[in-house]
Design goal:
Elements (H helix, E strand, L loop, with lengths): L7 E6 L5 H13 L3 E6 L1 H11 L6 H5 L8 E4 L18 E6 L1 H9 L5 H11 L4 E5 L6 H12 L3 E2 L13 H15 L25
Helix pairs in contact: 1-7, 4-6
The structure holds flavin mononucleotide.
Amino acid sequence: MPNPSTQRIVVGVTGASGALYAARLIQLLVAADVETHLVVSPLGQRLLRDELGLDSVDLAVLAGTPAPPPQLIAHHAKDVGATIASGSFRHDGMIVCPCSSNTLGAVASGNAQHLIHRAAHVTLKERRKLVLVHREMPLSLIDIRNMQTVTEAGAIVAPANPGFYHQPQSLEAVADFVVGRCLDLLDIPHDLNIRWSGKITPAGPRKDPA
Ligand SMILES: Cc1cc2nc3c(=O)[nH]c(=O)nc-3n(C[C@H](O)[C@H](O)[C@H](O)COP(=O)(O)O)c2cc1C
């Protein structure tokens, strides 16, 4: 029986570039001991393979732990009968990271193709927090209109749009800027160095790849 005070977050990973964002998000949610319900769309699985070299949704690798952590629970994208497909399953918010234009459109139209879309619709109807980490550029007018629609429905569009004023020295540090802002939106504690202090923090020595 999970601790009732444990935060519970639903994570959807879709087929937009930026699998590193998803991995860092999962690692930080697990580190914060958040009960994390993960769904990866079929194209999301392709991105995990293409960008992270994962042949499957390997929970240990994604979480950066020696074994799959008990607080990370995977659901199959085809399983629209999963717990998270129902509004009676209570959680503290859902994040789609990265979020494709396809999934943005599916959320805007209410036309679910898989469990991520269904869980997102449910999150909106239950008036819970939904964060969509959209990644595409440039934007079509259709994307822009879909962003307006989901925002009016209560979602937060948080584009995968890193800042550089913390002078990141690695790809992980770039990703952590976006992930840290998303954790803030979901009220998940973290100690990432992403806060603007009023001045540029001098960077340490650059870590060039060997
Ligand atoms: C390698 C690769 C990269 C892609 N990158 C993006 C992207 O950054 N943004 C996007 O909106 N779609 C991207 N797509 C297209 C989506 O994967 C495609 O629209 C798919 O239908 C999304 O399905 P899903 O939303 O169910 O994951 C990419 C596809 C591939 C194969």
